[in-house]
Write a structure and sequence with these properties.
Layout (H helix, E strand, L loop, with lengths): L3 H4 L5 E5 L4 H14 L5 H12 L5 E3 L2 E2 L2 E4 L6 E12 L9 E11 L3 H15 L2 H9 L3 H17 L2 H27 L3 H18 L4 H14 L3 E5 L2 E2 L8 H9 L12 E3 L3
Parallel strand pairs: 1-5, 3-6, 4-6, 7-9
Antiparallel strand pairs: 2-3, 5-6, 7-8
Length: 272
């Protein structure tokens, strides 16, 4: 189950944020957060800006996830900001730059695992296009809550452990299909054609078992990244080689939910 849904409070949802660029957005967001927390506007802005200077938190689909860690904060909070007007989030003006919705995360400096886990869950949430479109269309907290609750019910319908196994089998089937298609293009052998058909049937069988939202997420990641799954090896993501916190690894091992790499956005799995 996605725990982030239960963390979004009414007072943490901000509507009609006015900004013309990333800095003015961070200032507006910091002021709003400061008004409902014990933090100062400057401390929030500095934390968000410090992280942003490392690498953009724009994750595409019109969504950014600015986040920061503050000494002594003692918890992890999620804030949702709806922009009054879409802004060009990144100065290089690439295709994923426009942003109209932000999920901001603030956490304690000494507890990076919790905020990374929340980041991973937000990645999964915003990659569900149908749900994301509904979130962007909401006008107030009550409407947002309704959409998130519907997603929560969808999330509870499938067993993450089985879904991950199906995705792994799907990738294996796709690899075999490509191999036999390549072989068939250079060799005229009836046997290889029969094997190819068997793999295609097997792939169709697997597809019928995968949850629609999970499959949509898988396809979108695969289209953007080439590979949608990443194995955790020695506490690192095998795709981007970024270290995965122990808490996140344990969550992946428990297989109660689908966890995505907070850095590259691929679906994580383990074999131990």
């Amino acid at each position: 189950m996605l725990k982030i849904i239960d963390k979004i409070k009414k007072e943490h949802v901000f509507e009609g944020l006015e900004s013309k660029d990333k800095d003015s957005l961070f200032k507006a967001l910091s002021e709003k957060i400061a008004s409902v927390s014990s933090l100062s506007t400057d401390s929030i802005f500095d934390a968000l800006k410090k992280r942003e200077d490392e690498y953009t938190t724009n994750i595409g689909n019109g969504v950014a996830v600015p986040h920061g860690r503050i000494q002594g904060y003692g918890k992890t909070d999620i804030f949702v900001g709806f922009l009054k007007n879409e802004i060009n989030y990144d100065s290089d003006s690439d295709e994923k730059s426009p942003v109209k919705l932000v999920f901001a995360i603030l956490s304690d400096l000494e507890n990076p695992q919790d905020y990374l886990l929340n980041l991973s869950q937000i990645f999964f949430l915003v990659n569900q296009k149908e749900i994301l479109d509904k979130i962007i269309a909401t006008k107030n907290f009550e409407e947002l809550e309704t959409v998130l609750e519907s997603f929560k019910k969808l999330d509870e319908k499938f067993e993450a452990e089985k879904q991950i196994k199906f995705l792994i089998e799907l990738e294996r089937a796709e690899i075999q299909i490509k191999a036999y298609e390549l072989y068939s293009s250079t060799h005229s052998q009836q046997k290889s054609d029969l094997v190819l058909e068997e793999y295609k049937k097997y792939k169709d069988t697997i597809l019928s078992k995968i949850d629609v939202a999970v499959l949509e997420n898988y396809k979108r990641i695969k289209e953007n990244k080439g590979e949608a799954l990443a194995k955790i090896e020695n506490y690192k993501c095998s795709a981007c080689n970024v270290a995965i916190p122990k808490m996140t690894v344990n969550e992946v091992r428990r297989q109660n939910q689908i966890i995505m790499c907070f850095h590259c956005g691929r679906i994580l799995f383990t074999t131990d």
